[in-house]
Design goal:
This protein is an alpha/beta fold and 328 residues long. Helices cover 44% and strands 13% of the residues. It has 10 helices and 12 strands. Strands 1, 4, 5, 6, 9 and 12 form a 6-stranded parallel β-sheet that branches. A two-stranded parallel ribbon has the order 2-3. A two-stranded antiparallel ribbon has the order 7-8.
């Protein structure tokens, strides 16, 4: 009993010390919580859970609006006097302009949109959405799918939902390891096997140039680069990385008629980019680069590896609880 009492006393003391440390950090080094969204829309199928419904998005912004300063990603955060929040979007879906932007403007909340330039105006789906369309929405009986590839080739049965889900997960994981040209070869094999073309679904299309211009014209938005082909930079050579990063910025600058000062790593986990990626962004003059691993940004945070918290389709109450947990 004495040992248990001593343990509880020590634990209580440690907890109090942590709380005091957090309060001091909030005063002398106020953290910035960067949120990352992808889509604002309602989908019948959303295997990666990237979409937030318009209703939940509004409820989430209402909570942020009443609870915290919402600041811009590109701002100098050293001037921040208390904990603040930043809203960002990745990829460049059309619903960013058609559904997210009107709510942001109505509520006067700034947001940064990191856009992958290679899909603009194509009306083709991003590769992960095309995997979903070809595999998970497959109907009827089909012969097994055989991937013809010297290194990764194998065959999958597909006549049950569970088997198709395995094929989807396996290919999603494998595609993250290969170059864009090889990825397109695999997708063409899939389309040919399923008897489909590359025409994407309207609900999943990327931005058009005109929609990008609409986003860029808003006083509440910032446009950032997000590579050309949305390939994990860590699988690319230094020259290939440089091309992905700089060509993306150049294309976006041409379209919006202004400078691009910030970048977001595709996928953004620590395995998805490397020191070379960070160095290229720094040398290219980007003020900041966003990653996609959880954490808070402080004055000592590497500006080219800013952590972000992924937002899901949470209602207002759940979102508030999640934000509280993100601060802890």
């Amino acid at each position: 009993m004495t040992e248990n009492f001593a343990y509880r006393t020590l634990s209580s003391g440690w907890g109090a010390a942590r709380r005091l440390k957090n309060r001091l950090l909030n005063v002398f080094d106020p953290p910035v919580l960067v949120l990352v969204y992808h889509r604002v829309t309602t989908l019948a199928v959303d295997p990666l859970a990237l979409a937030v419904s318009p209703e939940n998005f509004r409820a989430q912004l209402e909570y942020l609006k009443t609870g915290f300063p919402v600041i811009r990603f590109e701002e100098d955060w050293t001037e921040t006097r208390k904990p603040a929040v930043v809203v960002t979007f990745d990829d460049g879906y059309a619903d960013n302009a058609t559904q997210a932007l009107p709510v942001l403007e109505e509520m006067e909340i700034p947001a940064t949109f990191f856009v992958s330039s290679g899909t603009l105006d194509t009306r083709r789906e991003f590769w992960w959405d095309e995997l979903e369309r070809v595999i998970l929405l497959l109907e009827g009986n089909h012969a097994p799918f055989e991937l013809k590839d010297l290194r990764y080739g194998r065959t999958w049965a597909v006549n049950s939902i569970a088997q198709r889900e395995i094929l989807y997960r396996d290919l999603h994981a494998l595609i993250s390891k290969i170059l864009p040209e090889r990825r397109e070869e695999w997708l063409e094999q899939l389309r040919s096997w399923a008897g489909l073309d590359h025409t994407g679904r309207e609900a999943n299309r990327p931005l058009t140039s005109k929609e990008l211009e609409t986003l860029a014209a808003s006083r509440w938005t910032t446009i950032g680069a997000h590579s050309v082909t949305h390939t994990p930079l860590s699988v690319l050579s230094e020259e290939e990385q440089r091309q992905e990063i700089l060509a993306s910025r150049e294309k976006l600058e041409q379209l919006i008629g202004g400078g691009i000062e910030v970048f977001s790593y595709p996928f953004g986990r620590k395995v998805d980019y490397n020191r070379t990626s960070v160095r290229i962004c720094r040398e290219a003059g980007f003020a900041k680069a966003a990653a996609n691993f959880p954490g808070q940004a402080h004055r000592w945070t590497d500006p080219w590896q800013i952590p972000r918290q992924l937002v899901r389709n949470w209602d207002g109450e759940t979102f508030a609880a999640k934000i509280r947990s993100f601060w802890s």
